[in-house]
Amino acid sequence: MRPYKVLIFIACVMACLGVLCIVLPGRFAWGEKDLRWPTLAEVFGEDSEHSEYSEYSEYSEYPEIAEDIPEEFPVAPDSLVADTTPAPAPTPQPVAPRIAVDSTTDSRVFLLPFYASLPQSVDQVVRVLHYGDSQIEEDRMTQQIRDALQARRYGGAGVGLMPLAQTIPSLTVKQQLHMGGKLITPAQGPRRYLVYGFKRDQRADGLYGPMGQMAVMNDSLVKGSESLMAVCTPQSRERRYTQWKIFADPAIQYTTSGDTVRLSGRGDVYALSQQSETGIIVDNIPMRGCLGLVFTKMDRAQLATFYQQENVRLIIMQFGGNAIPSNKNPGTIAGIVKGLREQVRYLRQLAPEAAILFIGPSDMLTQIDGEWQTYPMVPYMDRLLRKMAMEEHIAYFSLYTWMGGSGSMMRWQEAGLAGHDGVHFTRSGARKAGNAVADWIIKDMSE
Fold it and tell me: I want to staple 150 with a disulfide (CB 3.0 to 4.6 A). Which of 89, 109, 156, 254 is the partner?
């Protein structure tokens, strides 16, 4: 066979294998047979989930991450003894009690300021913000926390905050945006800016509002965007909201009728909210692909004003999972946790009366020598996050430990609670995890 024919044959085989990797990335199950092969990301030494952020990465804000390498990869026991030396106190002083902690401390002790604020829900709104990555998209997990606090304990109604242009469908509210009398997609609507994701979608002034994203009604950016209609229909009629709140520039005028809000004017729209006049409001704020290192890029004064005026008493941060697939260096993981500590301190300064709860990443699977196993950095990050939380006097819920630790994601897959990617929960799995977090939050501390 001539050399050029051999070359053509090899090229055809590689092309066929490439198509196979794209159509069936990594694995194909057929009856009792389970075929596995490297993904394109593994072949080319990159991670497909994070390659879209080549233009911008949260790492760029933390150059010390790559240098923050521990002397060795510590193998610590599950019960971690935290450093009992209090972290430097922020300004203003947090309300959370400054107490010595150890491995036996129930970290819900750091939720005491939130528990103390709950009686206020009889006369006013008590707000809970749930920030997280793609695990909480569609209002997953947040919905169960909301239901537990509203229906099972303290009242309140409505799904709370939502962006003007909802790019990810929600399980709890169906949103449609109209411009010029026509139904449009979010991409056809007002220009959006996000604190996470591509650098081209970010703004220099940090004015993103409480959701880390906003939309600009301005004809010069998108013609027709100075007159909009948003229809936001709750998917459950239980505990139906009783009022709209619009967070926008004063130049934006709006009227509401049922599930419809009409907006006009030129300016920034930060969020819409369906809520009640009193009770608990729990806001779902997903940030796809985000490491959680973005809060210090959001305007301090704007965020602090929202937290104070809206009586924010609990901030939930659920991040860490996006750091796992693309990082094998313990030093990089330690640097990311260091960056998350900075975010915790920043939010505590802006909302000194609020308690903070950090939810760590779940178990996550990858192929190692052809076998599906837990990413080695998952238990390491979980231990570092737990230690950081105890040192910063914030509550910590370990999804990884609660699921059952190493390899538990495989059992979740078998039970239909996790997807084929070995990373994300299914809707039923997210519901189970959300209920676990909710039960843990409201469980009697005396038990």
Answer: 156
